[in-house]
Amino acid sequence: MNQTCEQVKEYLKKIRKYEQAAALISWDLQTAAPKKSIDSKLEALGFFSTEAFRLSTAEEYGSMLRELSRPEVFAGLDEAMQVTVRRNYRDYQRFQRVPQDFYTDYITTSGRSEKVWEEAKRAGDFSLFAPSLDKMIAMTK
User: Fold this and answer.
1) pTM of this prediction?
2) How far apart are CA 39 and CA 44, in angstroms?
3) Model confidence over 20-68: pLDDT tens digits?
4) C-alpha span between 20 and 14 (Å, rounded)
5) How far is C-alpha 44 from the chain's CA centre?
6) HEC profile of the chain
7) Contacting residues for 3 by C-beta, under 8 A, at least 6 apart
8) Is the CA virtual torsion 105, 111, 116, 117 positive or negative?
């Protein structure tokens, strides 16, 4: 198998490790995190999510995907790897347009908004959540 193909597989494993850590922190925030731990958990979520994002947008990664996307190389890949290269290269190009600081802020704001929503729902008071919703909508645009 192509050496670049193996490098991409190893690179994707590294990205997945950060994504798994972020997913566990997110799950903890949604289920059992004590109220006093929310800020530190959001900080950790931002860190691990940003590391995965940084790896997903690194020039080294883009270079490997470009190499595997060359028609003569791409044709030699098995079907599963072709799908992986096609999807990840599309995502790489899309993520390149997002500044890393914005991404980190978006992830932590999203996590914080979920906690505010929970409080507003318990209190039956949408006005508590409205500012967070407005910010999430603006950031998503």
Assistant:
1) 0.86
2) 9
3) 999 999 999 888 888 888 999 999 999 999 999 999 999 999 999 999 9
4) 10
5) 13
6) CCHHHHHHHHHHHHHHHHHHHHHHHHHHHHHCCCHHHHHHHHHHHHHHHHHHHHHHCCHHHHHHHHHHHCHHHHCCCCHHHHHHHHHHHHHHHHHCCCCHHHHHHHHHHHHHHHHHHHHHHHHCCHHHCHHHHHHHHHHHC
7) none
8) positive
